[in-house]
Each structure stands twice: as C-alpha cells, then as structure tokens.
Amino acid sequence: MSQHEDLDYSTTYEGVDFYNIDSMLTEDERMIQESVREWVDDRFLTQDPKTGLSVIESHYQAGTFPMELIKEFGDMEVLGINLEGYGLPGMSNISYGLACQELERGDSGLRSFASVQGSLCMYPIWAFGTEEQKKKYLLKMGKAELIGCFGLTEPDHGSNPGGMLTKAIDDGDSYVLNGAKMWITNGTIADLAIVWAKLGGDSSKHIRGFIVEKDDVGFSAPEMKNKNSLRASITSELVLQDCRIPKNRLLPNVAGLKGPFSCLNNARYGISWGALGAAMGCYHSARLYALNRTQFNKPIAQYQLVQNKLAWMLREITKGQLLAFQLGKMKDAGTLIPPQISLAKMNNVDIALQIARVSRDIHGANGILAEYPIMRHMANLESVYTYEGTHDIHNLIVGRWITGLQAFF
Ligand code: TGC
Ligand code: FAD
Asked: Which numbered ligand comes closest to the C-alpha of 232?
C-alpha cells in the first residue's frame, strides 16, 4: 500500500484488501460488494457540511434508526440475499458476508437491521414455515415492505435461552402466548415477530417458533431507551399478554433449540464479516489521520510506534478476512459446523473492538469527536461482542468441540 498524496477525508472508502480477496470473488460477488459499498458511502457516510456529521452519525446522536432509507434496503436486494426461491436473490454466502461487511463499515446498526431481517426472520420462515407462510411474508420482507424481529432473549434468560419462560397454550383454533422478550432489535418498527415459546411442556425440547403480527391483540413492543451503544438501531421489549394468534402462524417444521440456533448460525456468520467492516472503518480513519497529523515537525505516521499500530491493525483485519472468506466457502459447500462460526464470530468481533481502541488512540483527543466514526464503532462493537452469543459463550462452544466436555452448567 503506497502513501497517497491525496488525503481527502470526504472519501469515505478505501479498500483494505492486502491479500487480494477480491481476486477470489465471482463477478456477482464483486458487484454486490461495490453496490453496497457505494450505497453506504452515498446514503449513510456523506457528511452534512452544516453539522460536519455523517447521516448515520446524526441518527446515532439522536438515537434514531434511518427509517427514511428502509425502502432502499429492499431496492438493494440485501435482505435475505442468500435465500433462494420466492423471488429472493439466492446469492452466495460470500455475497451475504460482503454485504454485511460493507453495511457495518457504515454502522453496526445497519448490519444488525439486515441480519435480523434476513437471517433471523426470513430464514426461519424459509426453512421451517409452511408454503402459505412463505408466500405471505418472504418476498415482501425481501423488499423491506414488511419488517421482522426475532424474540429469543428474555430478561432472565440471555445466554441460556433454553430456560425461557414464555409459553404458548393450544386453545382450539388458536395459540395463546404469554411472556416477555427483551433486547429485541427492530421490535418497535416490526410488522411481525418470530417469537420462540414453549408449547406443551417446560423443557427446551418444547420450544417452538410462532409468527406474531404487530396488530395481534395482547402484543406490544415498547422501545428501550438510553442505550449508549447501537444508538442508530431500534431495540425493544416484546410483551405478550394473552396474545392470541391463529394456528397457521406456528412454524411447523422445527421443534427445540435447533430452531433458533439454526437462525443464529446464519446471523453469527454475517457478523464475522460485518465486524471486519467496522474494523476497516477505524483503520482507514487512523491511517488518514496519522498521515495528516503533524507532531514534532513530522507526520505521526512516520513514527515507528504509530506504524506498528497500523501494521497490527492491517495484520488482524487481513487474518480476519481470510477466516471469513474460508467460512463463506465452507458455508456455500455445506460443510460448515457451528463451532467454526463461533471461532470466527468471537475472533473478528474481538479484533474489531481492539482495533477501534487503537484507532482512537492514534486520533488523540480528536478520536472522541463525532466527526470521526471511531467512538460510534467502538460503542457498537460492545453490543456485538455480547449479542448473538457472548464472546465467552463462543469460547465455550469451541471448548466443547475441542474437549467433548460441556462447560455451560
Ligand atoms: P445444546 O444442548 O448445545 O443444544 C440444544 C439443541 O440445539 C441443537 N444445536 C444447534 N442446532 C443448530 N445450530 C447450532 N449452532 C446448534 N447448537 C445446538 C443441538 O443439536 C440440540 O438439538 P437436540 O435435537 O439434540 O435437542 O443447548 P444448550 O442449551 O446446552 O446450549 C448452550 C449454548 C450456550 C451454546 C446456547 O444456549 C447458546 O448459544 N447461547 C447463546 C444465546 C444466543 O446466542 N442468543 C442470541 C439471541 S438473538 C440475538 O442476539 C440477535 S442480535 C441481532 C442483531 O441485532 O444483529
Ligand atoms: P448473560 O447471559 O447474563 O451474560 C452475562 C455474562 O455472563 C457474560 O459475560 C457471559 O459471557 C457470562 N456467562 C453467562 N453464562 C456463562 C457460563 N455458562 N459460563 C461462563 N460465563 C457465562 N436477543 C434476541 O433474542 N433478539 C435480538 O434481536 C437481540 N438484539 C439485541 C440487540 C442488542 C443491542 C443487545 C445488546 C442484545 C440483543 N439481544 C437480542 C440479546 C443478546 O442476545 C443477549 O444480550 C446475549 O445473548 C447475552 O445475554 P445477557 O445479556 O442476558 O447476558
């Protein structure tokens, strides 16, 4: 990578592709990456000259999700991008990963929106739903005409969803649901929720998936406020109080934890790519800043310690990219096993969080300003470290694979 004469901060993208991953992509995959990259640059990262803040940063400051751009998510065909049939794009898992990477280079909230819609809501309908359900929801969700959310976590059951208290009762021609879900991305703006609840018994084998629609009696989704992370993303509670839904809203083709965990496999895979996007945003900003910032009469980029930090960032991003790429190839080949996803999710989020911190350091005091994306990425990555299985839960999943011994309880 040569030093550039031109240090134009308005150029928000500079590829980080040290080992030429690009050469291993198909034309379609390259096209997806480019179009999502340009869209994120134009629509989310462009700075407003009046405030000096990007569109996404302004939303972050206000604690709002860019609702005005939801339709464009549909037009970009990134929602359910790796699902086939029912009018969906049916692209490769590498394409899905690249889209996640480019979205999260903008903000983890953008990738979250796409992960939840595609991997956590469209996927279970696609994999476990009836033909009627697939026809009713999938294409509209792909076009962002219907928004979904995924209700697994409860106030007292986060890492251990098998202990959930939410119950469904069979009541003639309907099911009646009671319980509460917490920390649910997109909940308040969702038209439908995939709710996981126990039917007919208390063990985790009784967990079933239900489609709850926003106007169903007994259902509400109040927004959770005062977050200091993922502020440009909606997070909600789901309240089910004698919520009655018709019988045809059960996802009939799965029972037990395998249902929600199969969805999580897809979303965690996407995060392993997405976190690299946030890391790239932080690296890119640090590199430009270091080249531009002079102390002791030299650009700080000329000092060995700063170069060491930049070289470390590039090293970790490059290793993470190779991990994500191989993961995608195995997913496309159908040979991927869940502990391999765990290893990549925990590694790539971990290094992204560390890269955000080192990038902030290189920016000195300026690093805490909203004019730079660093603190936003750093705060977002704290949530990403915890959701979809905490860092340590993934350690334990890998540990169980290595030893054959269960360390959760
Ligand atoms: P365990 O005994 O391991 O398994 C129970 C059943 O599930 C099957 N299974 C899987 N199936 C498919 N994929 C996987 N990855 C699977 N892992 C397990 C397993 O075969 C078994 O099936 P069966 O038929 O024999 O019953 O279950 P456990 O309770 O011991 O699991 C332990 C643990 C800790 C690994 C698990 O509970 C876990 O992963 N906890 C983390 C919870 C989590 O990730 N929650 C995420 C909530 S959603 C979210 O955060 C969305 S954020 C969205 C955004 O904004 O991007
Ligand atoms: P806990 O499970 O209470 O964990 C607390 C700490 O204890 C962690 O460090 C954990 O690693 C550790 N720990 C727990 N068990 C063990 C163990 N056996 N051994 C060692 N250490 C352990 N959930 C959804 O269902 N849908 C969503 O859309 C969704 N979106 C989210 C959005 C945001 C912004 C956030 C922050 C969370 C979201 N979640 C969602 C919830 C998320 O999945 C949970 O927060 C996560 O699974 C962890 O659960 P917890 O917060 O209850 O932490």
From this structure: 2
CA dist., res. 350 & res. 352, Å (int): 5
Q: How far is the CA of 60 from the centre of ligand 2 (A)?
A: 22
- pLDDT tens figures, 133-165: 999 999 999 999 999 999 999 999 999 999 999
Give the CATH number of domain 21-142; options: 1.10.10.10, 1.10.540.10, 3.30.300.30, 3.30.420.40: 1.10.540.10
CA of 53 to the centre of ligand 1 (A): 39
Task: Classify domain 148-249 at the CATH superfamily level.
Answer: Butyryl-CoA Dehydrogenase, subunit A, domain 2 (2.40.110.10)
Confidence check: pLDDT of 2 > 90: no
271 Cα nearest atom in ligand 1 = 56
Question: H or E element: which one contains 168?
Answer: strand 167-171
3 state DSSP class of 309: helix
List beta partners, residue 27. Answer: none
Domain-wise residue ranges, the chain: 21-142, 148-249, 258-403
> How far apart, in Å, are the Cα atoms of 136 and each of 7, 74, 130, 397?
50, 16, 10, 36
Rg (CA), the chain: 21
Pick the CATH number of 258-403 from 3.40.50.10780, 1.20.140.10, 3.40.50.150, 1.10.540.10: 1.20.140.10
- Of residues 73, 85, 80, the one with CA closest to residue 96: 80
Q: Is 264 in the pocket of ligand 2 (CB under 6 A)?
A: no
Q: Is the CB of 185 under 6 A from ligand 1?
A: yes
The pLDDT mean for the chain works out to 95
pTM for this entry: 0.96
Judge if the beta carbon of residue 317 lies within 6 A of ligand 1. Answer: no
Tell me the pLDDT tens digit for each residue of 59-95: 999 999 999 999 999 999 999 999 999 999 999 999 9
Tell me: the pLDDT tens digits for 231-265?
999 999 999 999 999 999 999 999 999 999 999 99
Is residue 371 part of the annotated active site? The answer reads: no
